Give the backbone structure.
Amino acid sequence: MNLAAPARGLFPSLLDELQRIARSPYQLIVVLLLPCIMLIMVSHLLSAGVVQHTPIAIVDADHSSLSRRIISNIKANPKIQLAAMPEDMQQALALVRQNKIYAIVEIPSQASSATVYPDLRSIVIHYNAQLRTIGSQASSALSQAIEVALKQEGRVRRGMGGLENIELSLPQVQVTTVGNAQQSFERFLTPLVLPAILNLLLSCAIVATIARHLKAPARPNLLSLIGQLLPYVLIFTAWHLVFWLWMVAGRGWPINGSAGLLVLGIIWLCMATAAIGAALVAITRDIHSAFSLSTIYASGAVTYSDGTLPVLNASGWAQFWANIQPYTHYYRLQIEQVSLASDAAVSGLHLVVLSLYIVGGLLIAKSLAKANKKELKLSPMPDLAFSGGREAFFSTLSSVVKTKPIFSTIALAVVLYSFYYPAAYKSQVSIKLPIAVVDLDDSSLSRSLIRNLQATRSINITERPASPQQALTLLRNRQVDGVIILDHNFMRKALHGHGGLGIYLTAAYLVRAAEVGNAVSSSLEAAMATPSTRLERTQFSRPEVNIEQWPMFDTTEGYGSFVVPAIATLIVQQTLLFGSAMLIGFRREHQIRGLQLSEFLGTWLALSLIGCFTSLLMFGYTFWLQDYPRGGNLSTLLAFIPPFTAATAALGMLLGSVIDRMSRVMQIYAGISILLFLVTGASFPQYMIPDWIIWSLMPFPSTTMVVGFTQINSAGASLSEMAPAFNTLLALVLILGSLAAWRFTWLKRHAQYS
């Protein structure tokens, strides 16, 4: 390391840092290669946009004209695909556990007769709520297809009795997502996660470059510090602009508001991230601690950004952490200008907050760097002398325990993340979202509907503007999360089988749209059933056969119960992956590069054993503590954990063998975690993701096992039902283990020859 005094002044420091970047292959990877890879992969990963052709099954015990209509309507719906028609529910549930289907339609015997005799059994839609995004969309599409079939069948049967002319329609609920009418996941998720990934990479690059001053004889002044940060700010600002150029020109997604304000927000975000990264190094005075804090801070940006589950009614901790994240304020500005075209004054407030982060971060970095000149106290050195497999095994355990950065990553981080991520989703559902209602009818029906809406869990009517224009202005400026408009003659049209009501929601909050839509539909049906309304109308056409939607495996339909168990698998993998790589990097710092085969096996076994313990902690105690779906099939879980951790440890050792020191692990590999989660199929189905992305990330066990462990823990999948995933894990253990063994024994032979 070059410990010469830093360049003084803004421009000399900037030029000096550009030269350092050009000379450092690791920084070039972080600032050029990884952003390019992330941009290509994430933009293509979600390019399908809308989930379609979701495989479902039908269990038909009726075999009637009604069931044939249902099957025909399902086949005609592009959102769902009839994949199987098992004989009974047991066979259908086995297909769900195998992840071959996401929903089941159970048609009971004599269901068609219930269109005339409504006391018979309901048609039931069972959907996999543990994979909420896919399961709920399949359930909605199935409900629509079945409702149409019931109306068709009921119309035919009542027509035979001369009753065809008394049927009226329940008013329709039309949900419009402003700025994303297609409800595209590309429009929703890509702008949420890709800037966060770039933000994390920038943070890693800043920590790596500022940390070199910890051992330098002189510290930079404020101008030289700014000059050192500027190249990274400029480079990552350019990557953000490339991304938005791709979204607008390449994919056709417009920026509805001010592009200038969006660019300012990007620049301010990058400057705030750089300043905070520099401050973390100055505060901790340790590169490993700074990397850990930076990764925790930046990797949680999406979780706490308010972009998925709202933090409005979350715990005080979640609200506090969300609001001290620079990314939260940037993302709000991004929503306001990309989707809503908010007023400039509204978005300008976020720039003010980001400016405070910039100034505060720089002042902290400068003041602490100037005041702290003592050398760091090094942790006690573990004994790295070993020979043979047994000694390598115990030396590995000793190194993990005695080396603070490794122990913090591989063990303590699992405990920390067991509380960190669940805290964001403690409320589980969207509660009392602020909604504006425009009642232009002021009838008994509209008043009853408004009372019912206020009584729901999801909606809080906070505004009653006089006109739709005023209401939409409130939505545009993010003063409300949605707008409900009841137009003139709403009641008269409803009682004559016409009309409906419109709901307008922000495009950035797709997770909330379904909950608000369901709340309005149920409130409207209840309002139509009130005595004052019933006396003034004839029968509306709610099908006599009830359609029931039953969530499977996550019966509370909590967002935390859906997303955290998926993240948990990634937490176990990434902590073990990073810890294994850090151990190898630590040994390489002390000139231990190659291993004999027995030494490799001892090291691999020790790391795998640690991974088994952290897996049991996460899937056992943490799931029990947080009350997440668990204990589905304990024997299958115990069979999967050893190959999962063995494959992860082998991959971590391989990744560690290509770096020169321990700190490079976080610098290089921390930015890939969000991408690894996206490709698992938990939030967006794998069958909609391009095959080349799936295959390129197959060496990471999470690609197979995030959904795999979810099916085991919540659905109770057996070993035979999970055989394809188990075989994939065994193949990874064999391939990655063989590659790692060859790599380390080759390095040993090469070192001896040299």
